[in-house]
Specification:
Length: about 475
Amino acid sequence: MTGNNDPAATVVIPCYNQGEFLFDCIKSVREQTFASWEAVIVDDGSDDDTAAAVQKVAGRPPVKAIRTPNRGLPHARNEGAQRSLGPFIVFLDADDMLAPKALEQMKNALDRCPQAAYCYGATELVGKLHGIWPHRRYNFFNLLFKNQSQTTVMIRRGAFESSGGFRFVGAGQGYEDWDMWIRLGGAGFHGVHVPSPLFRYRIKERSMISDAAAHHAQLLRALRERNSALYEPVVLLAAKRRWSPGVSIVAPQIGPEAIREIEKRFLDFEIVDSDGLAIHPSPAPDASLRPEAPMGRLVVQWNGMNGEEFVNNLLSKIASEPIHPQWTETVSRFAQTDDPAVLSILGERLMRMTQPVWISASPPSAPDEIGGDEARLRSVEEMIRKAGHRRVAWFGAGAFAKKLMAMARTKPAVIFDDDAKADYLNGVSVKKPGADDLQHAEAVLIATDAQFHTLLRRALSLLQGRADKILPMVF
């Protein structure tokens, strides 16, 4: 329960052996333009001098501190939330910092979008790396395969309490935030994105993100097991139709009999009205949170023909237009901008453009057949086969390229990397790129996720702006 005089927002700061960063963290909270806040520091049983640092920064209201036995990050966050007073809760790790207008911008975004359960923004990287991590606009289907935000969000108390709080995913720490966003989305609590950098993430030699990345495969299996109902084929296909349909059919006057005829052979579609708003499957209560309208990789007009004939024409169109007609233009715009707002919009759009269209009336047998990195890679490989490309180059030879190589059915002719650590990757030559090298490539796939924008720009500069050579990549 909250009282009339309680703060609007509570910033929960879990801390384990990170006292050296607390001063900067609390300073960033005290410098907020939004005045109605409190902070709760949770010392999670630190065994160094963190307790002394906590006492120094928690001496003045509205900052308070509690100490608990060491039970791990999920428990520390939940404990802080239980001690909070505000109707909105913000989670901020002790080694990170808020941007001055973070609370104000997140609260405004949630006020503007009452259907949203939580708000997240872009991330400014500080420490060993510097830059802006824009994140993509919210899309629940994409979220099931790739996390879309950091832990620092503002969430409505009711949504947080309904979720049951944070929990461990696997044997160690990692992906607790991703697990939370998935559970919220599955319960109908979705997020809204603010494109401004709202918090500063400190890059260190070792971090929770790097630890989790080292155990990605194990944590991903555990994540899907703990949320198994959302990865059931029928449920997953329903999520795709709502958030990332293969086809949007503009048909305000279509009848139920025609829809049934289409669904006998093909399910990966939505029916939209003349404004692009979904009317089938049933209008979503979260329609205002969907990034765009219409959402389909392809958009086609209903022409009044019978359902079977329409599907025949549609499948022919899908086969003849494997690459989205606006792909090259969108890639060029994405590469040319540094604006986090534009990057978040185009990044989410590119994700939907690379999703395969599920050409079947039956649901998939496994999640990776319909979404995620492997499904998009299969889609790209099919485009390469249809185009008859024989000399395809990859750009990037890091951890993500190694992951793709393990899934690839067709190896690239060559891999380019400015900072190559080895001469070969799974038997494929790795070399520093030159303009002549890329000019001879028939197509280029950017094989990275973390540095996609940087490597895309580098590749396009060597290709002299030939965005048409850039394949719908996996990122």
